[in-house]
Amino acid sequence: MARSTPFALDATDRRILRALQRDGRLSIVALAEQVGLSASPCQRRVKRLEEAGAIRGYRAELDAARLGLPLQAFVQVRLDSHAEEVVERFHKALLALPEVLAAYTLSGETDYLLQVLAPDMEAFGEFATRRLLRLPGVKETRTSFVLATLKPPGEVPV
Do residues 90 and 133 make contact, with C-beta atoms less than 8 angstroms apart? Predict the structure, then answer.
């Protein structure tokens, strides 16, 4: 099944997905109780959702600030060229930057939007000037710093 092809969900699948988004550590037995199934059919459904790519994985949600990375920035990046080799070199170099939490290709005036974490402004400055601006093809960047998080990334509405 192609990644962009929507996967048909029934009401039970949606209950499973909502429950797992709230707590990915639920045992199959606990999940089955929450969604009104017995354990075996619940496990089959979860496996089917995983195989179809509706569930991509399970991970812990970490608190970046408590782990020493309280500074969060969104950086808009423009490339000097959209030639295939420039874009590929930029993508490859970007993947090697652990400070970049997420990266998106955009339409419009900005080519990319990066979500970046750093311990402080000095560290961000070092990252921006010594690493980000030196990536292949980077023409310019614009940075906005997060002052407060009003709504953190949350559940996919299923």
Answer: no
* Residue 59 is assigned to a structural domain of this protein: no
Note whether residue 62 is domain-resident.
no
Q: Which of 133, 151, 153 is nearest to 143 (CA)?
A: 133
Cβ–Cβ < 8 Å for 143, 73 = yes
Contacts of 19 (CB under 8 A, 6+ apart): 26, 31, 34, 35
Question: How high is the pLDDT of residue 3?
Answer: 58
Distance (Å) of CA 140 to CA 74, 99, 137, 148: 14, 18, 9, 25
Mean pLDDT of the chain: 95
Q: Is residue 124 part of a domain?
A: yes
Q: What is the pLDDT of residue 71?
A: 98
> What pTM does this model have?
0.89
Query: What pLDDT is stored for residue 100 in this prediction?
Result: 98
